[in-house]
Structures are given as C-alpha cells and as structure tokens.
Amino acid sequence: MTATSSDVARLAGVSRATVSYVVNNGPRPVSDETRARVIAAIQQIGYRPNELARNLRTKRTFTLGLIVPDTHNSYFSEVARGIENIAFEQGYTVFLCHSGSNLIREMQYVNMLQDQRVAGVIWIPGTVDFTPYHKLKEYGVPAVVIDRLVPDEVVPAVVADNYQGGFLATTHLIDLGHQRIGFIRRHVDMSHSQGRYDGYLSALHAHSIEIDDNLVVKGGFTLDDGRRAVKALLELRHPPTAVFAYNDTMAIGGLRAAHEAGLNVPNDLSIVGFDNIALSGFTCPALTTVHLPKFEMGQHGTKLLISLIEKKESPGDLLTPLGVKLIVRESSSIPPNGDPKRSN
Amino acid sequence: MTATSSDVARLAGVSRATVSYVVNNGPRPVSDETRARVIAAIQQIGYRPNELARNLRTKRTFTLGLIVPDTHNSYFSEVARGIENIAFEQGYTVFLCHSGSNLIREMQYVNMLQDQRVAGVIWIPGTVDFTPYHKLKEYGVPAVVIDRLVPDEVVPAVVADNYQGGFLATTHLIDLGHQRIGFIRRHVDMSHSQGRYDGYLSALHAHSIEIDDNLVVKGGFTLDDGRRAVKALLELRHPPTAVFAYNDTMAIGGLRAAHEAGLNVPNDLSIVGFDNIALSGFTCPALTTVHLPKFEMGQHGTKLLISLIEKKESPGDLLTPLGVKLIVRESSSIPPNGDPKRSN
DNA sequence: ATGAAAGCGCTAACAG
DNA sequence: CTGTTAGCGCTTTCAT
Fold first, then answer.
1. Interatomic separation, CA of residue B43 and C1' of nucleotide C1, rounded (Å)
2. How far apart are CA A84 and CA A92, in angstroms?
3. Bridge partners, residue B181, by sequence
C-alpha cells in the first residue's frame, strides 16, 4: 500500500541504507549525484518514512505526553497551546490526555503513554496524589510538573509566582485607597493558595496595615463558594471595602453576592481575582484580574522537558517560577455601569 | 532497560508467542495454568507491551490526529474534549495539532500524522483551503471534517445546525416583541454564516416581517468589526431594536457600540450572538447566547471517524448536523445593570 | 496447546 | 562512497 524505503531504493537503484542516509542526512555521507536520484525517487512515489519503524529501531521517539485535568477552561488550553508550540518547533508531536481530575485515569494514561514509549511527559496534576509522577519515574520517563509543587520533593516543575501575584493584587487594592481587604482562599490548601495568601499578607505588612483574620475566608473554589464567602464578609460588623479572591470564578461569585447585597462593583466594593479558571479572552468589566502567563508556562515547561530528554543541562534552575501580569482592566472590557439611557 | 516479551517468556518458561497470546487474548487459546504463569511474570517485571513494535507488525495503530486552528477559545477546546472523550473510551490516543489557521502548518501536520501512521484524522479547517483533506485521502487516511462543509463534495463531516440556530435566535427576538432586527454576518462567506443568515430570513418570513436589507451588515469577525457594524446600524434613520450577530465576539463588540451610543443593553437594544468564539463558562449578562453543542460535536465526529476506520457502516448519514441550544440567559450571569447603591 | 521462525520498515555496524 | 546484514519488539503462520 504505502511506499517503503525498499521501493525508493529500487527506483533509485541504490540500497536501502543509502536511502536512510539521505533521509537522515547521515550518519554517512552520500554523493550529490546519488542523493539527487534518491530524492527524486522519494518525491516521485510520495514516500514518507514510517516513524513507527524508525522509533522501534532507534529506541527513541519524538512524542510527548500531555496530561491535563480538563480543558474546558482557558487555563489548560492556553498552557496546552504553549506546550504544543514549542513541541512542534522542536519536532515533537504531543499526545493529548484529559484526566478529568481523576487519579485512575491519570494512571491509565501514564501506562498508555509508556506503551507508546513517549520521550517525556508534561503533567498538570488533577488531584493531590503524585503517584502518576512516581510511576513515570519508575518507567524512566522524564516528566515535568506544571502548576503545582510536589511537596517534600525536588521535581522539575514550572509554577507561576503566586506570591508575587498575591502581592501585586493586594498592593493594587491598597493603592486604590483600600485598607480593609478581604481574602478568599481555598479549603484544601494547595501551593497556589498559600503563595497568594503570603503575597497578600506581605503587601498588607509592607503598608503597615494590620491583619484582621476575620477578613480571611476559607472556601472551596466554585462560583457559589465565592458568593457565599463574599456574603459572609459583607455581613461582618466591619465589612471589607475590597476583596481578593483565590480565583476568578470565586470573584464572579463574589460579584453576584455584592449585587444581591445591593452593592455596586467596583464603586462600593472592589474585587480582584486570579484568572486561572473561568475567564478567557473576555474579561468581566467590573472585576480586576491577575493574569497568569499560561501560554508561557506551557512553553517553559516544554523547553525544560526537552532539555531533560536530550540530557542537556537544564535551563537555569529546575524550578522556573514565572511572573504574573497584573492587568487592571482589560482593553476589551465593557464600561462597568450603565451609561445615560436613550429614550426609545 | 525496559522489559520485553522475551523477558516475560524466559521468566514464565514459555515462548514469546505464548506471551503474545496471553497479552492479546488470542488468537490462539492458552491453558489456564500457562496463562497464570505468564500473567505472574508480566506483573513481576512490570512488563508493558511496546505499542510501536506491535503497530509495526500489525500495520495498524490506535492513534488519531486532531488538527485544530487554535485552542485559546472555548470552542476548540470543548470540541477537543469531546473527541478525546470518545477516543479514550475506544482505546485510541490522540495527537494534538494546532494549525494556527495556517495552511502550511496544516500540511506539515498532515505529513507528520501520516509518518506516525495514525488510524484517522479529525480536522477542523483553519482556512478555506481543503488541500489538507485531499492529501489525507491521498495517503489513504480516513478523515472527518468538523464544523465546515467542503463545497461541491460529499465528505464525512459534523456540523452544527446553523440554520436552526439562526432561526431560534431570531424567533427569540421576535417573541420579545422586536420587529426590526439587524443581522451581522461575515465577510468571507463560510457555510456557518450562510446557514445562520438563512435561519434569520426564515424566522422573519414565518412571522411575516418584511426583510429590510439595510439591517444586514457584512463585516469581519472580530470585536471591533462587531462594534463598527452595530455603530452603523444605530446610525440608520430607522435603527433596529435588536441585533443578531454572527458570533459572540462581534456581539460583545456590538455591546460596546451600544454603550458608546448611550444605549442600555438589553433594555434599549437586544443583542444575540453565537457562542463559538469568545465566551466560555462565563456568559456576559447583557447578551443572549446561542450555544453550539461543541462537546457533542467532538464526540460525534470521533464516533464517525472510528466507524470509518473500522469499516463499519457509518452511523446514519455521513453529514451529521447537530442541534443548537438557545439559552436566554445563563444561570451564572450577573444582573445586567447596577442595583441601588449602598452609602459608604 | 505450544514452540520455531519469518518478517513488519527501518538504522547502523560491518564489509568492501 | 556504497552494499549487505543483523536486529529493534512484536505477531502470526507453520510446524509439532
């Protein structure tokens, strides 16, 4: 059916070895005259080398595995884009694996990827269980973790600088004149949450604002969690004038709670959230968002992984924290509150 | 390094053939006693069959290629999720390929996927050029097109029912009492645009509303295109009271134009848009959105592709139009206009 | 019910 | 500079 190197060899009147040397530009030299004949034959029959066969022979592939918890929010798809961007550039193709934040499925994919003998894996953990990473190590597959730090272990990872983001966001609110700033964190304390919280504390400290524990609310991560958290904050004797939410979904939930309480955002209450969950290109005008460099994180992680695969020195430190961009208001936003009405 | 079937065979005291029969449950029977020994050996050394080798031998893979124009909007990532969902279920893994709406890159990926001898390809065209599809056919690779119809050719494809969507959206506006409804279409007329436009016309016709060509504006597809289009509509002697935009990005642009003109949306001007570009889980409260069944489209396409690969009868017709969901207002939306202020 | 052996398409060491 | 050959790890016909 499909042409093989034997077909090319026969047509060009050379051996299969020579075809290989032409295709791979080595490892042995080929005379210009022969090379031209081989290339002509390749084009004539539309020969494409079988990657499966060469991978089997060379015991090396140019495929990567990408395991993500989900992709229906912009976070993971942006990261995936960054990953695929570098992978393509370096001649790798990537297997896309959605774990759905399910450990069992993560493990299934780890096995499937090992079966394919991928050169390396980029893993965005979906749970707090790091067994998938250890299994990869057991298989001898290089792996890079994105977005989470493995506790008590030094592992190649790319994480955003959540501390810096928390600091920036809080400072932004302070610069706006706020002194009572609420913070909504996660229940299960993942490294992000802690970093953002630490940044929050530092910013308050730097401006000699005393910390009020009543302003810190622990809650899940959903829209409704955010709504409840802000509701609780607004019911305090001394409610905050601004809120910093762990993520943008909760920020939106907070926005709803504010509306329900008859408050206008941002006039009566400023809300800031990280953009890792809900929002994509379009930003809710009333909210201020801390933008994570998702695409860049994907790029960085892939560079790191490939350097690991190719046994180069890793680029700089293994842990590559990335900055965050604080964007006060998206340029594509819509004016926050109603403009003067026009009579119909 | 990694264990092979020979290692298993040696340990279990059987031949490599027997190991194969155990791993594949056939094609020859194996006695229970032998099978048990083989399985024990497999587990003991953590043997994983090399997919590369078995694919080479059987001349068949369980990998699919997925070529998408981009993934930083929810449209493609939702479709990708649907695809991967079915693929996993059927034992396939998928190569993710971002073409960036670039024909050259699409062709490069077509070649890379052929090199990997993928069993089939799902392609979401990024341009109006269908050469990638024809190249796949030339390679003998089954392919399914998602979201676009190939002109003048019958090709396995999954498309949303844009006509139905256009009809629903327009009917919705009519039910709201609108009689003058603007329509913003695309410049380069792709099949979506035409379908949505036809639906618009039908709905008007069904309610005996006369068609006013002045209310139909042709424009690109970006936020700013939408803004300009609505601006133009509002400057008409008889401006529309409602607008139906080809996509949600343009709808958002229209929202801005309305604000700039001092109009309140949806009170003074209703806007409806398809959700294929900008919005993800979070919907802009002032807008009404026609939701495309993205996840389901991905699922459908993959089922179709696999049935093609496995030479089953294709499920029903090759062209599988899907319905659309009209959602009047997202439950997660925020009240459109400012509520009564609270004194600070 | 199992073993021996051939060969998938390719690369690379061995020969000239 | 090029041809011959051995095998990568697996499946499957041929034997027994």
1. 23
2. 8
3. B242
CATH number of B58-160+294-321: 3.40.50.2300
Nearest CB among A77, A140, A282 relative to B71 is that of A77
Q: How far apart are CA A185 and CA A196, in angstroms?
A: 9
AA letter at A129: D
Give the start-to-end residue ranges of the domains of chain A.
58-160+294-321, 162-292
Region for residue A265 given its phi and psi (left: phi exceeds 0; alpha: psi -120 to 50; beta: otherwise):
beta
**Does residue A54 lie within 7 Å of nucleic acid chain C, judged by its CB?**
yes
Given 3.20.20.100, 3.40.50.300, 3.40.50.2300, 3.50.50.60, which CATH number is that of B162-292? 3.40.50.2300
Distances (CA, A) of A77 to A278, B70, B103, B314: 12, 9, 21, 31
Angle of CA points A275, A276, A281, to nearest 5°:
55
Residue A343 has pLDDT above 80, yes or no: no
| Nearest Cα residue in chain A from B110 | A48
Q: Are B286 and B266 in contact (CB under 8 A)?
A: yes
Burial of B244 (0-12, 13-18, 19+ CB in 10 A): buried
Under an 8 A CB cutoff, do A342 and B259 touch? no
Chain B residues touching residue A337 (CB < 8 angstroms): 337-338
Q: Which two tokens stand for residue A181?
A: 């700033």
CA distance B156 to B144: 5
pLDDT in tens, A261-287: 988 887 889 999 887 765 544 456 677
The pTM (predicted TM-score) of the whole model is: 0.88
Q: Tokens 């080929």 belong to which residue?
A: A30
What are the tokens at A301?
Answer: 């992680």
Beta-carbon separation of B48 and A98 below 8 A: no
